[in-house]
Amino acid sequence: KRVPRVSLQSRPNQVPTFARMMDGTVPWRCLVPADAVAFIIGKGGANIRETAETSGCRVTISKEGETPSTLADKIISFNGLVDQKEHAASMVLRKLRQMQGVSDHEPGVFVIIVPQVSAP
């Protein structure tokens, strides 16, 4: 029997999860306090636009109703290649530390959301 070939390019939503993880397309997600969102976005979206343009990463923040009602925090998603996500996440973390008046050498908490398919 001959197995039909399927082009993954023509069906991008059907790329196996492992393959997406290997090429860096699995988004990174983290939690941020809801009261920090305005600071991360900046006036007229300036901060988040700068983060996206500088890193080359697509950065989105969950809107009202997109998170569980029991979650007071917002979810930031980073989409791009690994180095782009690292750069964007570090820029967001720097903004959070700046807002909270915490230096880079002080301990802090940064919550990363790991998809179940990525967990060992």
Beta-sheet strand percentage? 15-25%
The total count of strands amounts to 4
Strand and helix order: HEHHEEHE
The DSSP helix count reads 4
Assign a percent range to the helix content: 25-40%
Molecular shape: globular
> Looking across the biggest beta sheet, what order are the strands in?
2-3-1-4
The largest sheet is:
4 strands, antiparallel
CA(first)-CA(last) distance: 36 Å
The helix-and-strand class reads alpha+beta
Mean pLDDT: 80
Estimated radius of gyration: 17 Å
Q: Any low-confidence stretches, pLDDT <50, length ≥5?
A: 1-15
How would you describe the overall organization of this protein?
Helices cover 33% and strands 15% of the residues. The chain has helices at 17-22, 37-41, 46-55, 82-100; strands at 28-32, 58-61, 74-79, 111-113. The longest helix is centred in the C-terminal third of the chain and has 19 residues, at 82-100. It has 120 residues and is of the alpha+beta class. The chain is built from four helices and four strands, in the order αβααββαβ. A four-stranded antiparallel β-sheet has the order 2-3-1-4, with helices on one face. The termini are far apart. Helix 3 (46-55) runs antiparallel to helix 4 (82-100).
Provide keyphrases for this structure.
120 residues; 4 strands; four-stranded antiparallel β-sheet; 4 helices; disordered N terminus; alpha+beta; single chain
List the helices and strands and how they pair.
Layout: H1 17-22, E1 28-32, H2 37-41, H3 46-55, E2 58-61, E3 74-79, H4 82-100, E4 111-113
Antiparallel strand pairs: 1-3, 1-4, 2-3
